[in-house]
Amino acid sequence: MVSSPHEAMHRIFQEYPGLFSRVSEVLGVDIPPPTSATALPTDLTEARPVERRVDTLLRIETEHDGPFVLAIEAQGKKDPRKTASWPYYVSYLHNRYGLPVLLLVVCQDRATAEWAAHPIRIGLRQWQTLALNPLVAGPHNMPVITDVAEARKDLALATLAAITHADNPDVGAILKTLSAALRDTPEAIADPVIELTAQGLGNRPAAQHWRNLVAVDTSFYKSFMSEEIRDEGRAQGRAQGRAQGRAEDILLVLEQRGIAVPDRVRERITDCGDPETLRQWLMRAVTAASAEEIFAGE
Fold first, then answer.
1. From CA 200, how far away is CA 171, in angstroms rounded?
2. Which domain holds residue 108?
3. Which is it for strands 68-75 and 101-107: parallel, antiparallel or unpaired?
4. DSSP string, 15-83
5. How many other β-carbons are positioned within 10 Å of the β-carbon of residue 38?
6. 294 CA to centre of own chain
7. 230, part of any domain
8. Mean pLDDT of 188-213
C-alpha cells in the first residue's frame, strides 16, 4: 500500500518541477536550471502483461544542455527488487524518449539512502555492460533549514527538506520554521506546502505538531488537512448511524417477541457504540427468554 510520505517525496517535484535544480545543487551535481518542465506518463508497462510504474516522471528543458528525462522514485525502505527495476526504467525511458535519463531517489532515513546510492552494475566481473548511478536525496545531504528567511526564500526546497528530515530529533524546530515562513503567504502558495508536508510526515507524532503549527501560524486552515478532518467527522457520523440502527433492531426484535425491556436494558443498548457488540446482542435477541439475557456472559 502506498503511504502518504511516499507520495509526498515524489509529488513535490510535480508541484514544483524547478525544485530539482536546487536539489541537484545541494547534492553537488552541476545541472543547469530548467527553462521548462513537462510531466510525462508514469506508466512504463510494455505490451506484455508486466506493469512497471515510476513514481514521478518529468521532461526537463534546459537552456544550454538541452532536454533530459528525470525519473523520481520515493523509497521508504530497502527493496532488492529495485536493482532490477531501476535499470529497466532508465533503459526503457532512454529508448522511448531518446533523451538522457537521470534517476533521483528520495529517502527519509540514512540507511535507505546509503543503500539506494550504491551503483547498480550489470554484466560480468570482467566487463560491465551497464552501470546505473542513482542520485539520492535524503537526511544525510538535504539541508536542515531553521532560518525563516531561508525557508521563505525557497519554500519548495524547505518543504522537501522537512519531509526528508521527518525522523530528525529536531524536526519540531524545522517545522516551526516552515510554518512561520508561511505567515502572510497567499493561500494558493501555502496550500501545497501544507498538504505535502502533512503527507510527508505520515502518522509520525510530528504530523499532529504540524497541524497545530499551521492552525496558529496561518490565517486559513484548509486544503488536505481540513478536508481530512471533515472526512473523519463523516466517517464517525456514519459509524454512529449504523450503531443507532442496530440498537433499534435489537429493541424491535424484543418488542415483536413480546419481551419487556426495562429502562436500564434499553439505556445500555442505545448507549452502546460498538457495532460488533450490538451484532452479538441482536443475534441473542432472537432466542433470549428475557431482555437481560442478551448480555449473558458479559
1. 12
2. 1-142
3. parallel
4. H-TTHHHHHHHHTT---PPEEEEEE---B---SSS---B-SEEEEEEETTT--EEEEEEEESS--TTHH
5. 12
6. 44
7. no
8. 89
For residue 66, the one-letter residue type is G
Q: Residue 234 pLDDT > 80, yes or no?
A: no
Does 240 lie in the same domain as 197? no
pLDDT digits (tens, 9 = 90+) for 85-141: 999 999 999 999 999 999 999 999 999 999 999 999 998 777 788 899 999 999 999
Among candidates 155, 222, 158, which has minimal Cα distance to 185? 155
- What single-letter amino acid sits at 296? A
Nearest to 177 by CA among 157, 199, 153, 151: 151
Q: Name the residue among 181, 171, 179, 188 with its Cα closest to residue 150.
A: 181
> What is the C-alpha radius of gyration for the chain, rounded to an integer number of angstroms?
27
pLDDT-based confidence at 228, cuts 50/70/90?
low
pTM for the structure as a whole: 0.65
Is residue 130 domain-shared with residue 198, that is, in the same domain?
A: no
Give the three-state DSSP class for 105.
Answer: strand
